[in-house]
Amino acid sequence: MIGVLGLILFGYLIVIPIIALLAEGVVVGEPDTRITQQDEGSLTSYYFWRIFVSPQAAAIFWKPLGNTLLIAAASIVLALLLGVAIAWLLVRTDMWGRKWFATALIVPYMLPSWTFALAWLTLFKNRTAGGQVGWFEAMGITTPNWLAYGQLPIILIFTIHFTPFVILLVGNALKRFDSTLEESSQILGASRLRTAAAIVLPILRPALVSAVTLILAKVIGEFGVAYVLGLPTNMNVLATSLYRNIYSNQHGTAAVIAMVIVLIGAISLWVDVHFVREAKRFVTISGKSGGSGSVLRLGRVRGLATVACCVLFALSVAVPVIVLALSTLMRKPGDFSASNFTLDWWVGQGLDTLGFPNGILLNGEVWSAMWNSLWIVGISSILAGIVGLLMGYVVVRSNSLVVSSGLRQMLFLPYLVPGIAFATAYMALFGEQRGPIPALYGTAALLVIIYFTEQMPFASRSGISSMMQLGSEPEEAAKVAGARWFHRFRTIVLPVQKSAVAVAMVMAFISGIKSLSLVIILTVPGLDVLTTLSIRLIDLGYSQAGNGVVLIVSALAFIGTYTVQKVMKTDLSRGLGA
Asked: What CATH architecture does domain 67-237+284-341 belong to?
C-alpha cells in the first residue's frame, strides 16, 4: 500500500510536471495566438521553429548551446586534469599534509558555485556593467571584458568548483586500487607511463566517466555563475536563455529549451549507467596491498607538490572568502585606506541605499529570507529523510517487482532534470488551478514541495542503501509476536536507521540551503530565500550586501557539512561512499 501511494504521489510530483513541461512546448500559449493564427491549446510546431530555424534561433538557442557545450567541455577537461593529479598526490605519494589537504581541498564543493563568481566580479568588474567597479578598476588597472566576464572566468570557476568532485571520485577509486598490479607491471619491465596507460587508467575509467557525465549534467543546469558573469556582456548559456524566455512570457520557447536540457541530462545519465555496468570488467580480486610500491616517494619535488596544493587551496577557498568578506567592509571598492573600512553594511542604520536602509544583521528583509530558507528547506529536508527511508523500505522489502522497480526509477528522475528546468516544469503544472489542486505559484508550499522532490534521488538512495544492510529477521520476529506494521516500523526500523535518516536530512538541507537554480523563477517578492535575495541585491547594485548574504549561505552550508562529518565520525575525503 505504501508503495502504491508512493507511485501515485511521485507520479504527480515528478512525472506529471515533466509531461506538463513537454506539453507547453507543443501547444499554443495565449500570448502566441495571434502569431500562430491558432487557438490557445492547439497543437503547434511554432516553438520548435522559433528555437531551431527562426531568425532569432541563433540568439535564443544556438549561441547559448554552443557556449554551454564549450564551457562544459573546457571545465570538464581542466577539472579532470587538476582533480586526477591532486587525487594521485593525496592517495599515492608521500606529500606533506596529505590528511589536511584531503579535507581542505574539497571545501570549494561545499560552497555555492556562484560564491566564486561574486568574488571574481568583486575583483575584475569593469565599467561595462553598471554600479560599482571592481577592485582592479578602482586601483587604475583596466580589466578587459574577456577577463572580467564571459566564458573564461566561468570555465575557471567551474574548474575550481568541480575539481573536488573529481578528487572524491578518483581518490576513492585509487584507494581501492590494488597496487600489486602496478608492481607486477614494473617487475616485468614496463615504465611508469606504460603502467599508467595500460593498467591504472583502464581501472579508473568508470570513475572518470562518472565524473565527466555528472559534471556535465550539473554545468548544463547551473544558473548562478553564468547569470552573474554572462549578463554584462549578453553572453547566454542554455540555463540563462531559459530564464530570460520565462521572464519575457515566452513559456513555449522556454519549454523547448528545457526539453533540450533534459535530453542532454538524460544522455549523460545513460552514458554513466552504461559505464557503471561495464565497470564489472575492471574489478580486481585481491586484498589491499601493503607493498612498498603503494606510496611513491616524491623526493625533491615533495615540497613543490605541497606548495602547489597550498596555492590551490588559497585560490579556491581563502581568496574568494576573504575577498567577499573584505568587500562587505568597504565603502568604496578597491580602497584599502583605514578610513574606507566600515561595519555599516553589517550593522549600520539609515544607509543611503534605496530599499535596503539597514545593514545585513539589522535588516528585516535579510532575517525574513533567512527564516524562509531555514523553515522551508528544513521542512522539506525532514520530509525527504523520512519519506526516503519509507521508499527505501518499500523498494527493498516489497514482493512486487513493478512497485519496487517503478518506484526506484521514478525517484531518480529529478536528478536527470537540471534545477532550472525542473522549476520550469513546476511552473507549468502549478501555475494555475488543475482540478482540486489550487495554483501554488508564489506560495511557500510550492517551494517546500520542489525542495522535497528534488532531494528524493539522494534521500531514497540513502534509504535503499541503509535498508539493504538491515535483515528482515527482527521484523519477522515482531510480526510473529503480533506486532502490527506501524509498531514494527516505529520500534525496530526507525531506531536502527535513525543515523541514516539524520544524514539524509542534513545533506538535503545543505543542498537546499545553497540552491539557486531550483527556486530562482519560483520565488516572488516577500518570499525570498537567502540565495534569491543575494541575486536580487546584486541586480540592484548593492554588491556589498549581496556578498554578505552569500557569506551567510556559505557558512550555513559549511557548518552543516562539518556537523554531518563530526556526528557520523567520517569525512568526505574518504570518498563519496563514506
From this structure: Orthogonal Bundle (1.10)
Domain range annotation of the chain: 67-237+284-341, 351-578
Res. 282: pLDDT tops 80:
no
3-state secondary structure of 237: coil
Q: How far apart are CA 391 and CA 9, in angstroms?
A: 11
Of 49 and 404, the structure prediction assigns the larger pLDDT to 49
Give the distance from CA 123 to its chain's centroid.
24
pLDDT band per the 50, 70, 90 thresholds, residue 206: confident
Indicate the residue type of 182: E
Question: Is the CB of residue 136 less than 8 Å from the CB of residue 577?
Answer: no
Report how far residue 508's alpha carbon sits from residue 288's, in angstroms, rounded to the nearest whole number.
Answer: 34
Distance between CA 153 and CA 137 in Å, rounded? 17
Separation of alpha carbons 61 and 93, rounded Å: 46
Cα 493 to Cα 505: distance, rounded to the nearest angstrom: 17
What phi, psi does 209 have (nearest 5°)? -65, -40
Residue 484 vs residue 159, higher pLDDT: 159
414, 457 Cβ separation under 8 angstroms: yes
* Residues making up the chain, counted from first to last: 578
CA-CA distance, 496 to 490, in Å (whole number)?
Answer: 10
Q: Cα separation of 353 and 221, whole Å?
A: 33
pTM here is 0.84
Bridge partner list, 330: 341
DSSP 3-state of 330: strand
Span 247-255, average pLDDT: 86
Which candidate, 445, 446, 447, 451, places its Cα nearest to that of 384? 451
Topology agreement, domain 67-237+284-341 and domain 351-578: yes
Chain CA centroid to CA 471, Å: 34
Single-letter code of the amino acid located at 290: G
pLDDT at 290 over 70: no
Q: Which CATH class is domain 351-578?
A: mainly alpha
Location of C-alpha cell 536502527: 496
Whether pLDDT at 277 is above 60: no
Model pLDDT, residue 370: 94
Write down the pLDDT at residue 51.
93
Give the mean pLDDT of 19-43: 85
SS (H, E, C) 439-502: CCCCCHHHHHHHHHHHCHHHHHHHHHHHHHCCCCHHHHHHHHCCCCHHHHHHHHHHHHHHHHHH
